[in-house]
Hints:
By secondary structure, the chain is of the alpha/beta class. Helix content is 31%, strand content 18%. It has helices at residues 15-26, 44-47, 79-92, 180-189, 216-224, 226-241, 244-247, 251-268, 272-277, 295-300, 357-360, 394-414, 424-438, 442-445, 466-472, and strands at 4-11, 32-35, 99-100, 105-111, 116-121, 124-133, 156-158, 172-176, 195-199, 206-207, 290-291, 304-307, 311-315, 318-321, 326-328, 331-334, 349-350, 379-381, 420-422, 453-454, 457-458, 480-482.
Amino acid sequence: MTGGTVEVAVIGAGFGGLGVAIQLERAGRGSFVVLERGDDIGGTWRDNVYPGVACDIPSALYSWSFRPSAGWSRRFAPGAEIQAYLRAAAAEEGVLDRVRLGTEVTACAWLPGDRRWRVTTTAGVWYADSVVLAVGRLSEPRRPDLPGLDDFGGPVVHTARWPEAPPVLGRRVAVIGTGASAIQLVPELVDQAAHVTVFQRHAPWVLPREDRAVDAVERAALRRDPGRMTAARDRLFEEAETGFDARAGDPVALAALRDRALAHLAAQVPDPAQRRSLTPDYEIGCKRILFSDDWYPAVTGPGVTLVPAGAARVGPGTVHAEDGSAVEADLIVLATGFHAARPPFAHRVTGRDGTTLAEHWADGMRAHASTVMAGFPQLFVLNGPHATLGHSSAIDMLETQTRYLLDALDDRDTRGRTPVEVWPEVEADYLAQVHRRAQGTVWLTGGCDSWYLDRGRLALIWPGTASDFRAAVRYRAADFRAVD
Length: 484
Ligand SMILES: Cc1cc2nc3c(=O)[nH]c(=O)nc-3n(C[C@H](O)[C@H](O)[C@H](O)COP(=O)(O)OP(=O)(O)OC[C@H]3O[C@@H](n4cnc5c(N)ncnc54)[C@H](O)[C@@H]3O)c2cc1C
């Protein structure tokens, strides 16, 4: 067992937690620890190793602005390359030895008498002046409540817990779900499985991916002139920002996006009946838009059956669909996403007056500046409420929140290290602004239910551009009060 006392305890070693660790180290704030339940760093990119896994925002943008890489082999790097990027960054920045692997945080409680946090883990207890929750938004796989799933009799695998050698070869595979993971996985399964059946409750909107290899010559040119990497990133950032217009509900932008997606479908699926079952029944952008050049050919090709209905129940060796049909299967793949808007971790965090974070979020996730909560002094949540985007990279958002954290720590130093928490009115006012901004967005008006929402209200996504987020998430000392 280990444990100890630090200025900052960071929980989670994904892009969020590692980014914070690097910036703390660079700022000379050496008193910190990163507590990670997994057996490696990387978060999303450690856990998601299914065939075909890759980012869907170009790697030049889906990486840290302060560590551009000339090494990406493709425009959209495969997951293993992203994981290698994170490992190399952590090692070169000297933060690897700050990470305690195999250390799950089981409770995190503010101690009013001590005016600091007690962080209880499976490998010891830590005391920290400040805590950063970087436990991820897509880190708790969601197993659907399908009657009979436990009686299937064969392996049931979630995409985010892909085993080393799942029994796919020559087997009949039932894939439940058609979201971002399924769309990457299914084209890869086709070559291996005897047959793949895909259960699709709602057809996704799909745009061309336009992936390509980055050859050695191009990579060498980037290495020689890092300015080109920054310029490419800036260009991608600005291009992506324009994608918010459609999400905001602008009819012209929506029509343009819709037309592109429908043209992609028409070009890849000539058969009208197949096209009908692959045409979404909600507005584009309402759920995450997917990018693929091989999804439509895969699901309309030989070796795949698309069931245009969700899975309803499971029997021994059989999956029954909501439309009454049934298929026999040897393996079930759950491409069913994550517990996003109701993170189980929130039950483990107890604030100043004994309220848990789950209770604080009973009506939906909320945080001032998408980062700090009233009643939870010196606690910062990354990639939590209203902190992700539908149209651009999560990494820029994490960097904005990390700057906020560092400014908060600097301010604390100038105040003699008195712990502070955000005024409840300030938190309420921010939430009201977020909900005002959300009105008219496609997430609320597009006729779908997505993981961005919680009981009809926007919970996770930031209803603006990444630049708007940078402007909104600025540390102001006046938003906080001292905690006695
Ligand atoms: C397949 C996939 C593809 C994606 N592609 C993109 C993309 O192209 N673009 C994009 O912007 N976003 C993408 N995302 C979203 C992605 O999750 C974020 O971009 C980013 O990686 C999140 O980093 P994070 O550090 O916030 O969370 P995570 O990477 O999830 O890391 C959280 C860490 O916290 C740890 N943890 C959780 N609970 C505890 C506990 N109790 N104790 C200790 N440790 C704990 C977890 O083990 C994990 O290591 C993708 C997500 C998935 C699943």
